[in-house]
Structure formats: structure tokens, C-alpha cells
Amino acid sequence: MYGWRKALLCGLAFSSILAAWGHGNFDQKLDRSWKRYRNDEFGYCVSIPARWVKGEAFEGAGLYVETGMKKFSRPMGAIDFEAMASGPKDARILPVNLAESLQDHLSGLQKFERAERMEILEKREMSVQGSAGLFTKHRYYDPQERATWMEEVLFVNRHDTVYRFELDCRLDQIERFAPVFEHLVGTVQFDCAN
Q1: Residue ranges per domain, the chain?
Q2: Which of 88, 101, 154, 171 has the smallest C-beta neighbourhood within 10 Å, fewest atoms?
Q3: What is the pLDDT of residues 76-97, one digit of tens each?
Q4: Cβ contacts of 8 within 8 Å, gap of 6 or more
Q5: pLDDT of residue 96
Q6: What is the SS3 assignment for 62?
Q7: What dihedral angle (degrees, nearest 10) is formed by the CA atoms of 160, 113, 142, 61?
Q8: How many helices (H) and strands (E) would you count in the chain?
Q9: Distance (Å, whole) CA 132 – CA 187
Q10: CATH class belonging to 34-186
């Protein structure tokens, strides 16, 4: 009888390992195929996961991509990006304050997503292709989802345009989505040829 129980427990453990391994491979399939996106209005390019669901956003100034465990399952992670001109081209433009852009973003998150218990985990200034950048990582509780979410946001001020790149995912999925976001941001070209 003891041998039977041991065999059953080993079988269950092995099937759990296989299920987890199979899920990981499926995630990798969704995340490893990339295609190029070019924004005609602002002239920037970025590579996006080809197998994620995508859609135009921000009145043509950007795009969002999202995915779950499968392509059309409930999203567990999303990346969106946009370019925001700071004023009309013929007017005198003052430098854009990236800290204010971040504060506007966080205020909007709390207002529209009803984010609670927001905690900034990392915030640092950086240079992105010779332009001023501000990176932040924070987590918050979403009372509608009843789950904790993570965000990584990068703002870049380049030639009087602020570019925002944002990862939003469930906390338990950050190990999957953070490398995808890092790869996406690493493919950005601000002056992309046709």
C-alpha cells in the first residue's frame, strides 16, 4: 500500500512539473516572435511581440499590445507606448519636465484604474539615445481585479516630444513580462527611416 501511494504522489508531482513546463513553453512561443511597428506621424519605430493582441491607441500616436496565457485569453500583461508633442511646432517650447509627466501618469492611474496602495519601488534618471529619460517601477493593488499589479514606465524627452513606454502586468507575472518590455524598449528608434 505504501508503494502505491508513493507512486501516485510521484506521478502527481511529475504531471505538475510537465504542466508548468508546457505553460512556460507556450508563453515563450507568444513572446519570442517580433515584428516592426512604425508610427508615421512621429517617425519612430519599435519592435512588438507579433503574437500578442494589438491595437492602435492615443489617437494614432501609439499602440498597445497585450496577452494572457494564450493569445486571446484574459490579459495578464500589456505594453503600451505613445508619443506626446509638448506644443505646436511654431511656438517656443519649454523643456518638458519628466517628473511632472510621471506624476500625471500616476495620478491618472489612481483616478481611472482606482489603483490603491501604490508603492514606488525604483525611480531613476537615465540617458536614452542621448535624450533625457526617467524610469520608474511601482506596484499597486487593483480592487476590481483583487490583485496586485506591477508597472514599469519609461519617459523619454526627445526634441520637444515625450515618449512614454509602459508595462502593466500582474505581480505574479513580472518575471515573464519584464524581459519582453526590456527587449521592446531596446528596439526603439526615434528617427526611423521609411
Answers
A1: 1-32, 34-186
A2: 88
A3: 899 999 888 765 544 434 346 7
A4: none
A5: 60
A6: strand
A7: -40
A8: 3, 9
A9: 17
A10: alpha beta
